[in-house]
Amino acid sequence: MLPDxxxxxxxxxxxxxxxxxxxxxFYMHRAVDSNNLKxxxxxxxxxxxxxxxxxxxxxxxxxxxxxxxxxxxxxEMFFREETRRGSCSVVDLYExxxxxxxxxxxxxxxxxxxxVYIKSKEAPAKDVLKDLVExxxxxxxxxxxxxxxxxLSQISRDKLPDIGSEYEGDADSINDAVEFVxxxxxxxxxxxxxxxxxxxxxxxxxxGKERNELRDLVGKNLHVLSQIEGVDLDMYKExxxxxxLEQVVNCKDELAQFYxxxxxxxxxPDEYHLQTLETLLSAxxxxxxxxxxxxxxxxxxDRLSSYATTSPEVLPEFLQVEAFAxxxxxxxxxxxxxxxxxxxxxxxxxxxxxxxxxxxxPDRLDYVDxxxxxxxxxxxxxxxxxxxxxTKQIVALLSAPLEKYSDIVTALELSNYPRVMDYLDNSTTxxxxxxxxxxxxxxxxxxxxxDKIEALFDLxxxxxxxxxxxxxxxLDDDDFKEEQSSVARLIHMLHNDDHEEMxxxxxxxxxxxxxxxxxxxxxxxxxxxxSALKLVRRLQGQDGDAIGEEVPATPxxxxxxLHQTIEALSCVPSPELALxxxxxxxxxxxxxxxxxxxxxxxxxxxxxxxxxxxDSKAQITAIHLIIGTLQRMNIFGVENRDTLTHKTTGxxxxxxxxxxxxxxxxxxxxxxxxxxxxxxxxxxxxxxxLKRALRIAxxxxxxxxxxxxxxxxxxxxxxxxxxxxxxxxxxIPEITNTVIxxxxxxxxxxxxxxxxxxxxxxxxxxxxxxxxxxxxxxKGGSLSEKYEQIKTx
Length: 793
Hints:
By secondary structure, this protein is mostly helical. It contains 38 helices and no strands.
């Protein structure tokens, strides 16, 4: 127990101690210089008496010890010189120093002379060392005893009777060297542990910190043991490790057990750990409940797995000693013994075991699944994890197989993988789902069976549907879009060359994403539609009429799935997107010669336009999409096409703004003239559309004149002129050069009217159109002759 005193007092006591050391050292040096052995012993003993203090903390005591230590090195050289000169035999000197008055100085001097005694080789090293280690028992004060034994260890480490050493004796000398170090270690550990139990309870934490500062004094003994050449695997297995573990377990001190187990792992070779794994692991369950076993055990597994990675030739040894089974059993026993171990501790152990397994036995999926199963067993009975540290470890556990195998298909074969994920909270489930998807996209993994996709979508369900208690409204919009975009990318990566299996994949994906709710469907449905349309392109020409779940893959069956999927999207509602997808499907049905299917998709698009799309800008976009798609359709019979074109032109003429009406109506003219071999060529209806567009353009000018006092721009007339020129070149007989000439004159008249508004862009547009006509005149050929009669000036 240290006396109460402040930092200032301790500094004063240290200064007094150093002054005493320096003063006696001065007189000792003077005696040494005059070869006065008696005075040298006297003043050295007085100098060493300063180390008898109990007033200093370990840190301050170390400073004082080092001052004395430096002086003792000089005294040792003097003793060696004295015995060499023959002034005093080493045996007499060894006897002489034992007459020092105080025990502590006596033992320091005895160790110093003992070092000279061993070096003189007048007695076997083992006898001197045994004598010294026994005599040091005379100091039982923890702090003073630790530093004394540390001094003994320091001066003897190069004088052990090791193999190849100049102090090597008979065949058993190596055992004596090991016994000396072990005995010193055991006694030092006892002193170290005893420190914790001296003094008032209120200073327990302070004593723990002080002990922590002294731990290296004890650990150095194990380092010395590891450096002894004669300690081979057999001796380590039969003598060294059992003796060390016996002391570690029996000391029943948390700090000592944690530090010493860590020391064992760090200082001895990996090969020794592998061959004595069972013995080493058997000690872990016997440690105190509060020892941080997970850290030590994790370090052991990490070290051995690194050993296996850097030295592949030792892998058979891991199998021979059944390393995985022993680690797995030991972890189970530790968790069972430490009933109060938090979940994060147990999961951390399993993460380390899984890392070890993936490095050492990457081909043993059964081992990986066994680790995950053990984790599930530990978590069973618990609700969703709320501990952020445990959650982080679970994510690390689940991410490890993905990083190792770079193939989600391998992870999907692990039956316990989804069971571990079930214990994650909703937000972490999403994080893990994103990790899985990122692994797939990064490694371009191919998931090609419906069963695997079913398992995959079960893993990423946190992204594709609302979980119980989940609040997606709280999620940032950008984050939500990124999440759903990742799901969409995943859907695009699903592929199988077998048509039947690909159809099953599409059905599986459809089943899952339709549970996504109104916020998710606009992101995920398009990717499913495009994946399905890719399969349709591969199946073109197979128009089987079979209906039902077990039908072969045919375009008609896929279109049924597409219809159901887009119908769900139109109910979200997201009518503009649904309309686009219906039109895409209609065009695909056209390529497959499925007129009823194509007509049905157009019908659904029209219903959406009529009932759901109210915004005028959205209507404009939709009507032009309809016109463009319908123009490319060549499968419809006369009746169906007339119905659709009539509807389209009717919608065009009913747009809110006159300019929008005009542009939609003249776009409809393309519906009546196509260049395909069997295309529609109805010049009268083309002309009818263009004339109607002119009337609407004229009405728009009149309306502008009434409301704004000017007729506005003539841009609409110029746009219609360009449509006339397009169809004029196509050879429609109803569009003559006279009609075009009249329209040019009309535009000029409108431009020159008092109510017209000058618009540079319109002027440039009209001038460019006239230049085009002149260019066609000069080009030559039949088209040039047609343009010849049109006057631009």
